[in-house]
Design goal:
There is one protein chain. The chain is α+β, with helices and mostly antiparallel strands. The chain has one domain. It starts with a helix and ends with a helix.
Length: 219
């Protein structure tokens, strides 16, 4: 009986310690879908409880050119949907998304501008990326849009949907507008599910019983 209690105590202690000290598992993407094929999943990196996904957004280019005074408009938009999956003993704690764009406009007589907007919907909660309109002629500019969301509860599966929309408009003689996404990335933080205090007490109780049993045998 003493050996059984000792083995059980050691096993409980080791299991609890391993579960509590486990590093965050890699978060994966499941059921990745895109409506207009402008998004693509490039690759991901994992380090210290944070998984970084890089998205291929090279197809997000909108260009408008109006030389004869006829309005020119180009728009690119797409939505991706996917599920983030963590290991059963892990929980997803935070999701951050960021993207960068480069835009330029020029005109001698008329008007030209570019615009960008987007949103990230996480577990049916919409997190807007904001909107950006660029109209300064003769120069180019880079800008970024981002959002972050703290995931409540003990979720190890999270549904995500990201929508992006860019537009280039030109009107007048020699009016040009161009906007392109440079990169898009998403960081997902996860951590081990905390061990309930009752389990720690259970492990301590078993260890104590084993110690008492051993003392009784020695007396």
């Amino acid at each position: 009986m003493k050996k059984k209690l000792a083995v059980l105590a050691v096993g409980v202690a080791i299991s609890l310690f391993a579960a509590q000290a486990a590093t965050a598992a890699v978060v994966t993407i499941d059921s990745f879908t895109t409506s207009n094929d402008l998004f693509g999943l490039s690759y991901s990196e994992y380090n210290s409880g944070t998984t970084t996904f890089y998205l291929d957004v090279s197809a997000f280019v909108a260009e408008a050119q109006s030389i004869t005074g006829t309005p020119s408009l180009d728009r690119k938009f797409d939505t991706i949907s996917f599920k983030l999956l963590a290991a059963p003993n892990e929980r997803i704690t935070k999701i951050s998304y960021a993207e960068a764009l480069e835009t330029s406009v020029s005109y001698t007589d008329g008007i030209a501008f570019t615009a960008s907007t987007g949103s990230a919907v996480i577990n049916n909660i919409s997190n807007g990326l904001g909107e950006y309109i660029y109209m300064s002629t003769g120069t180019s500019a880079s800008f970024s849009m981002s959002t972050s969301y703290d995931v409540p509860g003990m979720e190890n599966e999270v549904d995500v949907s990201i929508t992006n929309d860019i537009l280039a408009f030109a009107f007048g003689d020699n009016a040009n507008a161009r906007v392109q996404k440079q990169y898009a990335m998403m960081e997902v933080k996860s951590s081990a599910v905390p061990i309930p205090a009752t389990l720690w007490l259970f492990g301590s109780a078993i260890t104590g019983l084993a110690a008492l049993r051993r003392k009784g045998q020695q007396a």
